[in-house]
Write a structure and sequence with these properties.
about 200 residues; Ubiquitin-like (UB roll); Helix Hairpins; 2 domains; two-stranded antiparallel ribbon; 7 helices; 6 strands
Length: about 200
Amino acid sequence: MSSTTKDPAWPVLVQISGEGACAALMNRKAFRKSLETGFPWIVHPETLRVLPWPGEPQILSLSELSGCFLLTLPPGSILEPYGKGTPPEVNPDDRRDMEENPLSEIGGMEKNSVMEQLTILIAQRHKTMPDGSYTTHLFEQGIDKILKKTGEEAVELLLARNDKDVIYESADLVYHLLVLLEASGLSWSEVTRELSRRHSE
């Protein structure tokens, strides 16, 4: 059984290519086993045991964001890793909550892309400003600090020396970019529209 103090469970946002999204729990042990085996391992929300994802699908991508993991699986992967029914909900950006209450409910994820889920989550954090949330901390620091932090993440990406670091730092940069857009009163959809405009030219 995983220890809630030495190896707390964090949320993992799961995108199954072309089919939808779901949520699960993952700790450091599960994260390492996932990287070693090439298929995902997750933490059971009740027993806290580390178990393989049903069917052992190949991992397309796996990275760590501030307070959560991001996982992409191939089409055909099982969408409900804990069986049928809606698992309890988690706070995908609040490590402290997960350490204090690893059995917090998970799930309820709409079938949106991970980017859409993060955009919605960040907007909710901006509106409610829950205590202990890293996203809340960023908003409290103000736009100048968010700009500085986003720049720091960009530099860390430039200094990445291998594929794993590039993925890790890219995830951090994207997250902070979404926070910057929200703090500026802008949206990710405006960025995608601009990309579409350029692509059509």
